[in-house]
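Section 5: illustrative case.
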């Protein structure tokens, strides 16, 4: 019986995420931030969601990327005011370098992750992230998995048919023509009801609930 990894959106999926201290704060769905100011369109060719996941104890880590279909970021007074983007779940890729066991293939895992066992891409071909709050990052804010964060971003993350609000540090740079942003955070996949077979099954237990998501965003002035 295969005991395959869970992977994201997502947005994207840490071999061992180090426990709840690294998990993004998660709440119920919140009201989207009003997108005021100048609009920057997401560059879908250079914007990606990275993902990393593992079996229990960080064993057999797997990682890869997911593309973004479209999206926009709003900027007012040189700061992000809002935004959203759509993740193309059908574009999910497993990095072949993460599949080293004899007889296993990255393409087989890709198919499994897209199946009803996990993301059910046939029924839920996209995931979505909508910014709900942007505030300056301070030393008292949540621990960051990236260097030199300058913002704390909250947003509604929709996976399959469930939406929850997550908060994470990000490094954002705004110029007159371009917005770039990077972030890395951990989610508990089970909070979105994503389980292999059933929540209490042995197969699901063997897969870590922690999934690391990395955002690499580039947007150009409209």
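Designed sequence:
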């Amino acid at each position: 019986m295969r005991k395959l990894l869970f992977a994201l959106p997502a947005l994207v999926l840490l071999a061992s995420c180090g426990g709840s201290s690294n998990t993004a704060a998660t709440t119920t769905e919140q009201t989207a931030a009003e997108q005021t100011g100048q609009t920057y369109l997401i560059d879908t060719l250079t914007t990606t969601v990275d993902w990393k996941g593992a079996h229990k104890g960080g064993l057999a880590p797997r990682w890869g990327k997911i593309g973004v279909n479209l999206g926009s970021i709003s900027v007012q007074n040189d700061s992000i005011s809002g935004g959203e983007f759509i993740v193309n779940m059908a574009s999910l890729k497993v990095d072949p370098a993460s599949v080293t066991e004899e007889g296993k293939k990255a393409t087989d895992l890709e198919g499994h992750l897209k199946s009803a066992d996990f993301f059910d891409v046939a029924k839920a071909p996209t995931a979505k992230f909508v910014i709900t709050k942007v505030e300056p990052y301070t030393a008292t804010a949540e621990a960051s998995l990236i260097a030199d964060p300058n913002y704390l971003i909250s947003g509604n993350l929709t996976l399959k048919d469930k939406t929850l609000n997550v908060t994470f540090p990000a490094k954002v740079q705004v110029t007159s023509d371009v917005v770039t942003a990077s972030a890395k955070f951990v989610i508990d996949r089970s909070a979105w009801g994503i389980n292999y077979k059933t929540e209490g099954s042995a197969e699901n237990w063997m897969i870590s609930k922690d999934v690391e998501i990395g955002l690499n965003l580039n947007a150009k002035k409209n």
